[in-house]
Specification:
Number of domains: 3
Radius of gyration: 26 Å
Strand content: 25-35%
Number of strands: 25
Helix content: 25-40%
Structural class: alpha+beta
Number of helices: 10
Shape: elongated
Mean pLDDT: 85
Distance between the termini: 69 Å
Amino acid sequence: MGALRLPVPEAQAKHLYLVGRPAQFGRGEQTLLDRKVRDTQEVPLSRVKIDKRHWARTLDPVLDQLRGDLGLPPSCDLSAELHSMLVYGRGQFFVSHQDSEKDDAMVGSLVVTLPSSHKGGALVVEHAGKSVTYRPPKSRLSFVAFYSDCRHQVQPVTAGYRIVLTYNLLVHGDTAVPAGEALAKPAGELASLIGEHFATRVPKGYGSGDADPQSRLVYLLDHEYTERGLSWARLKGSDARRGALLRAAAERADCEVALALADVHVTWSAFEPDRPWYGRRRYRGWGWGDDDPDDEEPDPDEYELHELVDWSIRLDCWIDEPGSRAEKISLAVAEADVCQTTRSEDLVPYASEYEGYMGNYGNTLDRWYRRAAVVLWPRQRAFAVRAEASPKWALDALAARLRSGDAAGAQADAAALAPFWDAVATGEHQRGLFAKALTVAHGLDEPVTATTLLAPESRR
């Protein structure tokens, strides 16, 4: 084709369109082609040549500005890795979706729209209940960047050709906000509130007169992260400042802190507006699990929510030390432990399930969310909190104490397991867990505690 002219003339745009091939999309581990989901032409990168030195004079200043716009600190750098060249013709679109993180350093996406004469094809980006629509100018380049967990869509093109370059945004360096003087005052105030939280006693159960002090505090962050992308050094936007503030406050409050992934499940009483059908349907990102493919697919955001019926939160992995890898855990979180700035219902669920009226139950909407969380606990309760999250970790820690000759310390820690061990260890199916428990029980030489450790296995 030779060099592209800007704005791209219609003849060149049409030629690009014909060079392209139908674009695919990812769903989990699959790569699919479905024009009902994504209808656009992708020009193979092997056929795209960019004068990098010349282009860098335009792109580098934009990346420097975007770093600040995305809330990343000056201590890190942002780079762009070309992912695809796309051409949208008349009637083509891409439904609402999220970009997968294709690299450990990837934090977002950059869409560069080449100027051309076209109508429609607006880019709509959503996050935390807010939506922004971008309509690129026809005479100059436009740059739009967003974090990879932001849902976005390309509306149908109504005339001409929309031509874009998409880039993976990679961050280099630590996105964590330094705990400087700016955080000193709010960290001190927050440490005082954290102390009040852990001094508050909560009832052990309904109708019980007994109460225990709270063992943990779970603050839900606003952005989504994969296990692969979970890192103190890769927190996004406002999460980075909040994470730094909580870590500084935890140090003042003599608490340990971890960065976790939380699976949030909420159930609402709800009704589908103007749709009198009944039964169960399930929405999972791209479509519905209907038996009837001709049914119109309702938008999960259209439901009328009435009352919150139930909710649960479970932490399934965490990182306690910066630079370490995520550790698998399984920890149910109590309502009294949780706080958040953004409510889950203001975010987009990764799955929804509506159950219509079934005679004596129904008209409920279940939603599942994937959120990151900062978890704090008092240092003096650290063993019990970690043990409840990972029975395997607890047995390894007890075994290490026994090997070091600290039998008294091991017995004291093991005794702290009694309130929850039966519940958390019964659900564990890790190979070798019983052998570990048997070895520790023998080393403790304390019959009551040994019975506690081995009781879950006897009920399997």
